[in-house]
Amino acid sequence: MDGDRADELVAAADVSAGVLREVAAGVRRMVAPNPSPFTHTGTCTYVVGRGIVAVVDPGPDDPAHVAALIAATEGERIAHILVTHTHRDHSPAARRLAAATGAEIVGCAPHRPRHPGAAGGLDAAHDPDHAPDRILADGDVLRGEGYSFEAVATPGHAANHLCFAHAQGDSLFSGDHVMAWSTSVVAPPDGSMGDYLASLEALRARGETTYWPGHGGPVREPARYVRALLHHRRQREAAILERLGAGDATVAAIVARLYDGLAPALAPAARLTTFAHLEDLVARGLAEADGEATPGANYRRRG
Ligand SMILES: [Zn+2]
Predict the structure, then answer these.
(1) How far is the CA of 284 from the centre of ligand 1 (A)?
(2) Cα 295 to middle of ligand 1, angstroms
(3) Ligand 1 centroid to 89 CA: how many Å?
(4) pTM for the complete prediction?
(5) CA triplet 262, 266, 270: central angle to 5 degrees?
(6) Which residues of 98-123 are buried (b: 16+ CB within 10 A; e: fewer)?
(7) Which CATH architecture has domain 5-220?
(8) What is the mean pLDDT of residues 183-196?
(9) Cys staple from 280: which of 135, 193, 286, 292, with CB 3.0 to 4.6 Å?
(10) 10 Å Cβ neighbour count for 299?
């Protein structure tokens, strides 16, 4: 996927400086100091408005990042902290920032494990302590002074994921649902490929002209980009069905075929995404598992 190269270079520079940079009228961005293969240059924290402002995705529980945000907004009042989803690189700083500013924490619901009690390494990716003052449902509008946001329910990457449409900026804060630098990780059980594809379809009907993602630079021409993401997933799905037809029966066998030259650090994500496709194909009756659809099951094509 093409990113906005020039913007990426600037974003990379922002990381070391910890600066709050204006990226559009009424939208400033600070990149958190948590770069990794999954977070790119780090989590993008946005400050929306002037004077009385909202923060979108405050980031990981990093005192230095929160202190830098507070210093960079000196003389202004942070009234709202919006959270797209409860992955640990997005929501934990909300509490530290709210404690320091008195801001209201608004947005996604707390994380609820889909299989309570199951020993899942995946739930470790979630912030279990997210405690919003107000949960927004699909279509709910948050009004501040000089800004307003409409919540757009976009489950898939995370079950509680919301995007926030920003009317004044003709833009949408897309969290980890749509990013320019990389496709989203869809990791069951909290992640769901069926939900993710439906959430992409929901965005296709919208008219915003820029998306501000949770990592990396902006998504320009988002309608075209979302169509490309859907196309990419359908191609991957077709390739997985083809591998099943050729006799590859396990997640590992399919990943070995489809992700040639994959960096080892990204292999777990590739396995989970492939499993997410298989789970969706089973749910739609296009594949079947020998028993329950699990990451370790054997699969075959149906029909
Ligand atoms: Zn995430």
Answers:
(1) 26
(2) 20
(3) 7
(4) 0.91
(5) 80
(6) beebebbbbbbbebeeeeeeeebebb
(7) 4-Layer Sandwich (3.60)
(8) 92
(9) 193
(10) 24
From the CA of 244, how far away is ligand 1's center (Å)? 29
Tokens of 292: 């329950």
pLDDT digits (tens, 9 = 90+) for 91-126: 999 999 999 999 999 999 999 887 655 445 556 789
- Distance (angstroms) between ligand 1 centre and the Cα of 300 equals 30
Contact between 80 and 107 (Cβ < 8 Å): no
Asked whether the domain spanning 231-301 has the same topology as the one spanning 5-220, the reply is no
Give dist(CA 172, CA 139) in Å, integer.
Answer: 13
Is the pLDDT reported for residue 11 higher than 90?
Answer: no
In a 10 Å sphere around its CB, with 0-12 CB exposed, 13-18 middle and 19+ buried, how is residue 168 labelled?
Answer: middle
Q: What mean pLDDT do residues 5-18 have?
A: 54
Asked if 176 contacts 215 with a C-beta cutoff of 8 angstroms, the reply is: yes
User: How is the chain split into domains, by residue range?
Assistant: 5-220, 231-301
Give the per-residue pLDDT at 119: 43
pLDDT single digits (tens) 20-46: 999 999 999 999 999 887 888 899 999
> What CATH number has the domain spanning 231-301?
1.10.10
